[in-house]
Every structure is written in structure tokens, then in C-alpha cells.
Amino acid sequence: MIENPLAKKLENHRIILASGSPRRKRFFEAMGIPFEVRIPDVNEVYPDHFQGAEISDYLAELKATALHSDLKADEILITSDTVVWHENTSLAKASTVKEAEEMLQKLSGKWHQVITSVCFTTVTDQKTVHCITRVKFRNLTQEEIAYYVTNYQPFDKAGAYGIQEWLGAIAIEEIQGSYNNVVGLPSHLVYKTLMTMVA
Fold first, then answer.
1. Looking at the DSSP assignment, which residues form a beta bridge with residue 86?
2. Which of 73, 74, 81, 97 has its CA 20 to 30 A from that of 166?
3. Of 73, 60, 69, 72, which Cα lies nearest the Cα of 18?
4. 38-66 pLDDT, tens per residue?
């Protein structure tokens, strides 16, 4: 039987996924990578002057710092963060229906960037990579926005939407770059980085 090339390389390592996101877990399962979940306790605050990928890089590394002291020699810790960057502003997770609707109104009819950073940390080394995808929404009606927010409650997602949900199906006119990145993980980049990290 032919083995999964990455799983074979990682047979003497343990992958620690520092995320409670079901979407990120599904990507690791799809790649055939055994993993353990550990959730960092982090206050996700970043310097005000940071922009775009600087924010997601910083937060991914901040999450790694919270778990680094518990790492064992055979473990690779993977932390990540996603930012929706629109008109020089980061659209974080909405905490209320009103905030979510306002975010989607801002994105309506316009392009935005979805940036996901992934940080790979071992006892002795750390590497951070990121992926940028451009997404264009068609003009959305207030009724469509209200329906989506009420029925899908996207409060755990940057930019208040999930591309894999109803809004993604009806609103996205164009996408430039990785679709998986918009879902929450640039899986191709994770695979490539792990393949180069492990001898």
C-alpha cells in the first residue's frame, strides 16, 4: 500500500493543532494528518499600527507563545489566525447581530482580502507563513444580509461570513487565490511547509 507522503514523514512527530475551529480540524483530517487539539488562552490584541498580514502573523505567533512552554521535543505546534482586510481596516468577529450586518454592508459590492497566517513552532524553531485571497461580493440587499445573519449566526468568523455557507453560494462574484484559505486554512501551504520542515 502506498502511504500518505506527509503522514509518513510525520510518523515520529506529533502535530498539535491550537484551534477549536471545526473547519480547520476538517482540513487536517482531509490531509490525513493525525493531530491533537490544544486551545491557547490568549487575549487577541495587536498593536494599532499593524496592517493586513502583520495582524494575522502577530496573532498566530501570540497563540504559539501561550503553548510553547509545554511543547515536547517531538511535537510541532500549529497556530493560525484569519483577518478580513477591507479598506485599510480589519473586520474581526462580530459580537452582535448589528455588528455582523454592518460588516456585511461594508463588504457588499466590493473586493476584500482574506488573510490567514499559520505559525509552525517546535521546541527549537518557529516559522510563520500566510496566504492572501481576494474576494468580490455582489451588491447585497438588506433582506439577504438579515436572513444570513439571523439563520447562520456567523459570529465565530472574521468578517461575519463563511464562504462555505449560504452567503458564499449567493454572494461571491469572483475569487482570486485559495478557496480553502477563505474557509479558514491555506491547507496547500500547511502541507508544503510541513513537508519542508521535517527531514
1. 89
2. 81
3. 60
4. 999 899 899 999 999 999 999 999 999 99
Beta carbons of 77 and 18 less than 8 angstroms apart: yes
Q: How many domains does the chain divide into?
A: 1
Q: How far apart are the C-alpha atoms of 30 and 162, rounded to whole Å?
A: 19
Phi and psi at residue 162, to the nearest 5°: -115, 125
pTM: 0.93
- For the chain, which ranges sit under pLDDT 50? none
Q: Where are the alpha helices (DSSP H) in 68-141?
A: 97-107
CATH of the domain at 25: 3.90.950.10
178 contacts: CB under 8 Å, gap ≥ 6: 131, 133, 186, 188, 189
Determine which one of 41, 70, 74, 81 is catalytic. Answer: 81
Contact 76, 16 (CB under 8 A): yes
CA nearest neighbour of 135 among 64, 82, 73? 82
Judge contact between 128 and 86, C-beta under 8 A: no
Q: Residues 163, 178: contact at Cβ < 8 Å?
A: no
Q: Is 57 an annotated catalytic residue?
A: no
Query: Among 38, 83, 50, which residue's Cα sits nearest to residue 184?
Result: 83
Q: Decide: helix, strand or coil at residue 138.
A: coil
**CA torsion through residues 169, 172, 175, 180, sign:** negative
Question: CA 160, 162, 165, 168 torsion: positive or negative?
Answer: positive
Q: Which domain holds residue 140?
A: 5-197
